[in-house]
Write a structure and sequence with these properties.
The protein is mainly alpha-helical. It contains ten helices and six strands. Helices cover 51% and strands 9% of the residues.
Length: 253
């Protein structure tokens, strides 16, 4: 971002300051079909994106949803999410996502992206055995197999065993214990439910990153949001809608 957009914000720079801002992306898609292995397949033309640099947090006393939550709500309504026979919310495990989900989509089945969960296990294995140890890979593979099989309790048991001498393992106990119901991957797969947020990750790269993160680019918040909106229209196959909305807004002024 340009300097004025990060003034007073904490970040990862040596002085504690920030040079970047976080853009949040909401993705809606359908997966009514499965492949030859019974895994859900994203329906062609069903993916839509909506993104902005916005806050997702609200105070407990707030009357309205946060700006980003309102964005998610508008996209959900537009796509008919509330009328869907089965609603699924997939996230990376961040608590704010589940708070938003519980408030906005109380009937949805919540799923922690399986690759984020497995990456967490690999991080713990490296913390226990070191980056170059064969034992690290074997330990992580065993835990990932348990996760795939639906034996989340066995994963937590192994993490608790390692937690006494390993901070990351202790932290992971809380992460997996809190998300047990969101990690029933064997059950989800048997019911034809997506367990991966790959569609979202692809959107982060293609709809946002490929345009906003080019070498030498510096953005204002308004400029980044304007381009993100246009990019999301294009990638959602709604370019004609963009021009229609633009015409309506111009007439309103």
């Amino acid at each position: 971002m340009i300097p004025r957009e990060t003034e007073g914000r904490s970040g990862r720079q040596a002085d504690g300051g920030a040079k970047t801002r976080e853009m949040k992306l909401a993705v809606v898609w359908t997966a009514e079909r499965t492949d030859e292995k019974g895994r859900p397949r994203t329906d062609a033309g069903s993916v839509s994106y909506n993104a902005a640099i916005e806050s997702a947090s609200t105070k407990d006393t707030a009357v309205e949803l946060s700006p980003f939550a309102q964005r998610v709500y508008r996209e959900a309504v537009r796509r008919g999410f509330y009328e869907a026979e089965r609603q699924i919310v997939i996230g990376d495990g961040a608590r704010w996502i589940w708070r938003l989900s519980a408030e906005m989509f109380p009937d949805a089945i919540e799923v922690v992206d399986i690759f984020h969960a497995k990456e967490k296990l690999h991080e713990v294995s490296r913390a226990i055995y070191g980056n170059r140890s064969d034992l690290a890979g074997k330990w992580a593979d065993l835990r990932c197999d348990e996760l795939d099989a639906g034996s989340i309790e066995e994963v937590i048991k192994a993490l608790k065993k390692a937690a006494a001498g390993c901070g990351p393992a202790a932290q992971a106990v809380g992460y997996f214990s809190t998300n047990i119901r969101r990690m029933r991957y064997a059950q989800f797969r048997s019911e034809g439910i997506c367990v991966s947020s790959g569609v979202v990750e692809a959107g982060c790269r293609d709809a946002i990153g490929a345009r906003h993160k080019r070498s030498g680019m510096r953005w204002s918040v308004d400029g980044a949001n304007d381009i993100a909106a246009l990019r999301c229209y294009v990638k959602s196959d709604r370019f004609d809608d963009f021009w229609y909305d633009r015409a309506i807004n111009s007439q309103a002024k």
